[in-house]
Structure formats: structure tokens, C-alpha cells
Amino acid sequence: MGAMSMPLLPSWLRLAWTAVLCGVLVLHLVHAWAMPGQRRWWHAGHTVMAAGMVVMYLLPHLTRQVPGAALFAVLTASSAGAAIVFRYREGVLNPLWVASAVDMLAMTYMLLPAAVRPAWLTGVFVTYLTVQVGMWALGLWDRTPAFHRSGGAEPAVLDVPPSNAAPTAVVGLRAHSTPTVRLSLAAMTASMAYMLVAM
Q1: From the first residue on, what is the mean pLDDT of each consecutive set of 10 residues in the chain (199 residues)?
Q2: What residues form the membrane-spanning segments (predicted)?
Q3: Domain locations in the chain as residue ranges
Q4: CA-to-CA distance for 125 and 192, rounded, in angstroms?
Q5: What is the per-residue pLDDT for 150?
Q6: For residues 172 and 154, what is the distance between their CA atoms, to the nearest angstrom?
Q7: How far is Cα 76 from Cα 62, in angstroms, rounded to an integer?
Q8: Number of alpha helices (DSSP H) and beta strands (DSSP E) in the chain
Q9: pTM, to two decimals
Q10: What single string gives the DSSP state of each residue in 21-82?
């Protein structure tokens, strides 16, 4: 699919999205470097996702000519596996890992040839991603019941480097985060939804 067949992606807009996504990439890379455990892998996944989106906006005509779909299919399975493993370890299905798996699935879908992407399924993904934008932008993930169980210490947050004290968290990954992380995730999710509409 050539750039000329994507009228919703003029050069200036592609570059603007690319700049935003580079900022998202750097932010999550820093957090992946600084954080331990689940938070490290969760931020690392978003770093790879941001890198994938940068490539898609810089080279939209080459996107579906590279085996990126296979990479994100593996990441989809990994995120789903993490959701299952931590469900048994922590006693609750963490919606952040579930959402991460669906986000990776959306990336996989975007990287498939247009011929195998039906319009109705594209609409489903766009709707899901639009809801995700609102969830992150408004800080609604932190209100999810899974993050407010009784019987344990306050879980460690996504974007604050850990102290020397070892936490005894019920949930090892939760959505309590600073506005910069929330807005970065809202921006990246919006870029995914826009790319699906523009393709």
C-alpha cells in the first residue's frame, strides 16, 4: 500500500505522529530500564509497540512487506501468557496484562495485508482503541476493582522507581501512574486507532 493511497496520512501528519511516538518510546524505555519485575516487562512491551508505530508512520508503504506481524503475534501470546501466569500467582486477572495482549493483537492486525483485514474487524479494533484512549487519558484504569483488593500492601506503581524496601504487593502491576505515562499511553493508542482508520 503506497503512501499516495493513504490521503489521511499526509507527510506533515506522519512526521507529527512520529515525533510524538518517539517521545513515547523514550519514556517507556527509561521506565523499562529503571523498573524491576512485571513493570520492566510491561514498559518494555510498550517500548517495542512505540517502535513499531514509529516504523509504520515513517514507512507506511513498507509496513506490510516486513515480518512485523510475526513479532507482534509472539508479543500477543507473551502478554496473554503473562496474564495467565500472574492470575494464578496473584489470585486476580490483571486487566493491564489483558489489555496489553489485546493491544499487541491490534498491532499484529495492523501489520497484516489489507486483503485479510475485514472492515468490521477494523471497526472493532478502532472502537476498542478509542475506549483505551479515554481510559488512559482520564486515569480510569486505576479505578479497576482488580487494583483495590483488600488484604495486602499498596501495590507498586507503574512509573515510580522502587525504594529499597521490598513491597508485599497483592498485584505486582497496577495502573496508578503519573500524567506523563497516562498521556503517553493515550497518545500511542490514539496513533494506533488513527493508523487503522487511515490505512
Answers
A1: 62 93 96 89 94 90 71 94 90 89 95 90 97 92 65 44 47 72 94 92
A2: 42-59, 66-86, 92-112, 119-141
A3: 3-198
A4: 9
A5: 42
A6: 10
A7: 22
A8: 6, 0
A9: 0.82
A10: HHHHHHHHHHHHHH--HHHHHHHHHHHHHHHHHHHHHH-TTTGGGSTHHHHHHHHHHHHHHH
Q: Residue written as cell 510498550?
A: 46
* Residues in the chain, overall count: 199
* Block residue for cell numbers 506503581: 157
* Cell 512487506 sits on residue: 65
Tell me the three cell numbers of residue 141.
Answer: 484504569
Which value, to the nearest 10 degrees, does the dihedral of the CA atoms of residues 46, 98, 187, 183 take?
-90
Cell of 79: 502478554
Question: Helix 95-110 vs helix 68-90: angle between axes, to the nearest 10 degrees?
Answer: 170
